[in-house]
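Field reference: sequence -> structure
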Amino acid sequence: MDDCTPDRVDYTALERLGDEIAELSTHLEAATARLLELIRDFDERGGWNSGFSSCAAWLSWRVGLDLGAARERVRVARALPALPRLAQALARGELSYAKVRALTCVATPETEERLLAIGRAGTAWHVERIVRGWRRVDRNVELRETALRHSRRTLGVYQDEDGMVVVRGRLTPEAGAVLMQALAAAQETLYQRRHRTFVSDVSAETRWEQQPPSFEQQQAEALTLLAETALSSKAARTFPRKRHSGWRVTRAGS
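Structure field:
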């Protein structure tokens, strides 16, 4: 049995073998970059929409990838157009797909350059570890910002000197989005109601003389309709009766 003693090892041949491995790996990463471009184009053009639920499902069937791995390919493919430095580094073989996959989980156009330096300096294991820490920090920052916004929510309703009711407040983005959607739906309802009344009750000679309400007036009417709808709902009728005493509801738009 032969022993691989140091004086019998062909270091030159091993160095050439190592160079060939590195070169082929570079070619594979460049091919992966091209593959991701094709996947993105295929995904955007809906080539998978022929009985499959997603591009990842099509990839899993067509190429034999694990479904989780296919989802990651699609995710990275979608992320790279906004991260051109990472995309170029992958195409040149400077970064492995494993590193790029991890970095695209947290990278933004603002942090891309910094994360690219991390990817070049560390191993794939180091990059994965840094990305996990980065994501924890991001989550903590997001939670703090969410809590801060929540603590700043306010709503004031009071009656002015002329009898008008003034409404002023600050809502969280989520609550604000719900309110704006509800107001838009109420405005559409009032528009349809106003249009039907306008056509049936107003003569052709006088229609042009009536001015439509301004956007702010429409918003006020929509808010009134939302309040009226809430009060007339089944849930509102379960409130204690004394809460309703003295309330006078006026039909929106009247």
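Note: The CA atoms of residues 48 and 58 lie 6 Å apart.
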